[in-house]
């Protein structure tokens, strides 16, 4: 006995506590402490313009890491905001850089917010010169590291307008050590006047919607009701030459040579040979303003200088926001890695490999999109490493009409809507008669397109000219088309013949994309005559158009990226290993003590879907959500869980689904004691918190994505049976965005039914449905509770529970006040319903009995019999010559419910 004394329960607990403390210590070691910083706001006066002839003030904020001083200097980041923003637009990003030990200077660009001056669109003499003066200001700060007198150690980071500034500043000032331009342009003229056959911006098609967003963001008002330093009714705070160029282009839809030269003055293209700072180019795949081709042009131009360049494509952009969470993490990692090496002079030289991402599914935890990252050693450009030719089907020339004044117009994107534009991602509105579609052959196997597809088109026009918008759609087996990232290729064709037979094919380069095209899908080339985002010819005319030959699809052999959080995976593996060691030790101790963990099934409950015993949930502040709840759900039953707001219904369901732990009590599912993560949860299907569907996928694709996230085999999903029970029919192949609320509820029920779980738990399944949809949902639940399955429904619709459920549990103030069959809960009542053949004759007979009654319908009377037996009332009606078709007691579940709980509405919401 003395040899086993160390194996006491007390010592086992102490050992477990030691392991826990070890885990806490490791977590503390690997978790970075929260960095602190101070901020210093000031209005900085700078002289810029030609010959520094102009004096303006810039609204700035300097973020300084705590401890930065003349004796402990730190490197700096100049962080620029996007067009229409102010310094506050990048405050969060500045704080992140400061947490990494960088001093960060943010400022409001000239012409915006509280800063004075006019907007010149990142012109060398103005915005670029302003930034150079800010470099001077940084170099003079005693806390900033320098490479030489007046030369700060500094990287420049910015997105869109700020990204172009980073490129232009690095070309103008050799003091810049590294730059990270994001979602920005190479040629501003080409960005606003694109032409996809290579004709150049003079022949480009005006991107009027995005240009209007830019022009509209120049009003100079910093706050509503508070005018900026200068506000012009027509030009806002734009410089006169910029304003005049915009007005000319917007009026004619064409650019003259002066306007193109002015835009190129503000373009990195004009100074690309002078950029020597190592450059990390981050560009968005969902971007109709500055597409991937702009970053490609910057990368090719800068690399010719021998400058280190890295290109990273991610799933966001002006139309896609920040992209997926994994993309945000990847971009942040690459940015810090780049700055740490080239500015801080720490760490290994970053790779110059090319990285890209593609959407690859639904995040079952965050209910958002997931993306996978890939890497290629050498940047392939938008042409890809190789290509595949996909033949178009039988091509027949078609007539398309250009609408007068461009109205009505097709819709492909929502310029300026930011993240809201993702609601339209992949969706478009084509106007009948204004487009021609040409379908490719079916893909025999899945392929990932990375780069710019190309296609040949030809056209005939009675005027000799045509403006067309070429689009590439991904068409699924159900025939539903998706416009890839809402991208459009405008072309302006001149010198066209009047008949298509003599027209010469023209090669069109489509926008670069990253898209997995699944086997069985087709690609469709659409030639449209209008687009809401662009200016087209105002005169009505009919063109004849045709897409010919093949669609050439570029591909890249990318390797999956080991993301920056791999370290944390290894840490997690280590923690799990320690936990496993602790668990093994606990099991050994228990065995050596002769104790065994009872994991057997309670044989008396093995056939019972659910038994809840003395459930209690109390929170740390003393609030009791559930006091004492006990009930049982048997096979074949549809059980309704009822109670007023605050009764504890939802809390009970959350405990049941393992989403929260009870304070005390026990839940048994088919005889297994239920705990969070318990394997027996796989026998339960639930709809307790909103399912969250991807609107651009159809119902089947959403259900498949959900099932894949469970890790179980598809053949175990019983997909067809679940869809049949839910009554979805052919709607399962429609996109969820086209579903009514009722259809989405059915899809949610079908998701809960996948795998045909033996117990279905639903919280308010009829919420928001109209009466016909509620009636159908009632039938759905009834159909499910067969073959030994059971359903538990929480609802506030008492009438529906009465008609849907076989049993009911009434909860009030966290306790069960009644449970049993619905008929038993309703009980008997003196109120009786009579359905009669002659309403007038029946009323006269009841008048003689001196009983109160009410007419419910043309054949139905509701009678309060009190002390008169029903048999006597029936006899009186029959003796009066009235046919009595139905006699039934009238007491609704609502009456019983109110009798049980009164009019209490404890709590402000369900618990």
UniProtKB/TrEMBL annotation:
MF (Gene Ontology): ATP binding; ATP hydrolysis activity; dipeptidyl-peptidase activity
PROSITE patterns reported for this sequence: ABC_TRANSPORTER_1, ABC_TRANSPORTER_2
NCBIfam families documented for this protein: CocE_NonD
Signal peptide: none
Stated name of the protein: ABC-2 type transport system ATP-binding protein
Spans traversing the lipid bilayer: 567-590
UniProt similarity note: Belongs to the ABC transporter superfamily.
Organism from which the protein derives: Allocatelliglobosispora scoriae
SUPFAM superfamilies named among the record's database cross-references: alpha/beta-Hydrolases, Galactose-binding domain-like, P-loop containing nucleoside triphosphate hydrolases
Lineage of the organism: Bacteria, Bacillati, Actinomycetota, Actinomycetes, Micromonosporales
Stored PANTHER family: ABC TRANSPORTER, ATP-BINDING PROTEIN (PTHR43335)
């Amino acid at each position: 006995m003395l040899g086993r004394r160390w194996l006491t329960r007390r010592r086992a607990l102490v050992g477990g506590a030691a392991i826990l403390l070890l885990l806490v210590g490791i977590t503390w070691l690997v978790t970075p402490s929260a960095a602190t910083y101070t901020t210093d706001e000031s209005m900085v006066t700078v002289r810029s313009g030609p010959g520094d002839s102009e004096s303006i003030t810039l609204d700035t904020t300097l973020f300084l890491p705590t401890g930065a001083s003349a004796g402990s200097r730190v490197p700096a980041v100049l962080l620029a905001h996007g067009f229409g923003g102010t310094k506050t637009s990048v405050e969060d990003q500045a704080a992140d850089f400061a947490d990494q030990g960088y001093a960060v200077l943010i400022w409001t660009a000239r012409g915006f917010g509280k800063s004075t001056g006019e907007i010149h669109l990142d012109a060398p003499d103005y915005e670029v010169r302003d930034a150079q003066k800010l470099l001077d200001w940084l170099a003079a700060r005693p806390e900033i590291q320098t490479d030489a007198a007046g030369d700060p150690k500094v990287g420049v980071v910015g997105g869109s307008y700020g990204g172009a500034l980073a490129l232009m500043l690095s070309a103008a000032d050799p003091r810049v050590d590294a730059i990270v331009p994001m979602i920005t342009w190479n040629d501003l003229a080409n960005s606003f006047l694109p032409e996809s056959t290579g004709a150049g911006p003079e022949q480009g098609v005006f991107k009027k919607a995005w240009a209007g967003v830019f022009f509209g963001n120049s009003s100079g008002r910093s706050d509503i009701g508070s005018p900026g330093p200068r506000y012009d009714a027509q030009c806002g705070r734009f410089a006169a030459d910029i304003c005049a160029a915009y007005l000319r282009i917007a009026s004619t839809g064409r650019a003259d040579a002066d306007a193109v030269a002015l835009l190129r003055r503000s373009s990195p293209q004009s100074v690309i040979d002078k950029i020597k700072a190592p450059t990390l180019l981050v560009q968005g795949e969902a971007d109709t303003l500055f597409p991937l081709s702009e970053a490609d042009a910057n990368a090719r131009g800068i690399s010719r200088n021998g400058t280190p360049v890295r290109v990273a494509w991610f799933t966001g952009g002006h139309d896609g926001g920040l992209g997926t969470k994994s993309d945000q993490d990847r971009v942040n990692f690459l940015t810090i890695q780049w700055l740490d090496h080239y500015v801080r002079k720490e760490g290994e030289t970053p790779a110059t490999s090319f990285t890209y991402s593609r959407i690859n599914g639904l995040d079952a935890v965050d209910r958002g999109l997931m993306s996978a990252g890939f890497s290629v050693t050498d940047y392939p450009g938008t042409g890809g490493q190789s290509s595949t030719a996909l033949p178009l089907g039988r091509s027949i020339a078609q007539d398309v009409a250009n609408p007068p004044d461009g109205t009505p117009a097709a819709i492909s994107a929502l310029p300026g809507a930011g993240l809201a534009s993702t609601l339209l991602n992949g969706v478009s509105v084509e106007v009948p008669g204004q487009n021609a579609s040409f379908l490719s052959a079916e893909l025999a196997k899945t392929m990932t397109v990375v780069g710019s597809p190309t296609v040949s088109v030809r056209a005939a026009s009675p005027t000799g000219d045509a403006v067309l918008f070429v689009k590439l759609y991904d068409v699924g087996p159900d025939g539903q088309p998706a416009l890839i990232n809402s991208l459009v290729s405008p072309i302006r064709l001149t010198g066209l013949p009047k008949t298509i037979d003599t027209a010469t094919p023209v090669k069109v380069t489509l926008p670069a994309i990253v898209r997995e095209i699944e086997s069985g899908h087709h690609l469709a080339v659409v030639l449209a005559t209008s687009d809401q985002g662009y200016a087209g010819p105002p005169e009505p005319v009919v063109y004849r158009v045709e897409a010919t030959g093949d669609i050439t699809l570029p591909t890249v052999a990318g390797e999956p990226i080991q993301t920056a959080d791999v370290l944390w995976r290894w840490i997690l593996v280590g923690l799990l290993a320690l936990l496993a060691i602790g668990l093994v030790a606990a099991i050994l101790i228990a065995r050596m003590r002769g104790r065994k963990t009872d994991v057997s099934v309670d044989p008396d409950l093995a056939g019972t879907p659910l038994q809840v015993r003395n459930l209690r949930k109390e929170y740390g502040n003393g609030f009791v959500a559930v006091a004492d709840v006990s009930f049982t759900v048997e096979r074949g039953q549809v059980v309704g869980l009822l109670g007023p707001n605050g009764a504890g219904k939802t809390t009970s369901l959350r405990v049941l689904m393992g989403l929260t732990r009870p304070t005390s009590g026990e839940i048994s599912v088919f005889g297994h004691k239920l705990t969070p993560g318990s394997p027996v949860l796989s026998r339960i299907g639930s709809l307790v918190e909103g399912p969250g569907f991807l609107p651009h996928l159809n119902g089947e694709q959403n259900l498949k994505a959900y099932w894949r996230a469970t890790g179980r085999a598809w053949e175990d999903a019983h997909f067809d049976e679940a869809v049949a029970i839910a009554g979805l029919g052919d709607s399962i192949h429609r996109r969820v965005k086209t579903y009514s609320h009722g259809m989405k509820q059915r899809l949610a029920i079908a998701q809960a039914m996948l795998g045909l779980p033996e117990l279905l738990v639903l919280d308010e399944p009829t919420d928001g449905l109209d009466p016909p949809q509620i009636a159908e949902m009632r039938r759905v639940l009834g159909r499910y509770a067969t073959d030994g399955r059971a359903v538990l429904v929480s609802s506030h619709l008492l009438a529906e529970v009465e008609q849907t459920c076989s049993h009911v549990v009434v909860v009030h103030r966290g306790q069960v006040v009644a449970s049993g069959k619905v008929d038993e809960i309703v009980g008997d009542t003196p109120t009786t319903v009579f359905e009669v053949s002659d309403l007038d004759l029946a009323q006269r007979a009841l008048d003689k009995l001196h009983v109160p009654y009410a007419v419910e319908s043309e054949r139905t009377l509701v009678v309060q019999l009190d002390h008169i037996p029903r048999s006597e009332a029936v006899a009186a009606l029959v003796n009066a010559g009235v046919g009595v078709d139905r006699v039934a007691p009238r007491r609704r579940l609502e009456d019983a419910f109110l009798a049980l709980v009164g009019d209490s509405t404890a709590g402000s919401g369900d618990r």
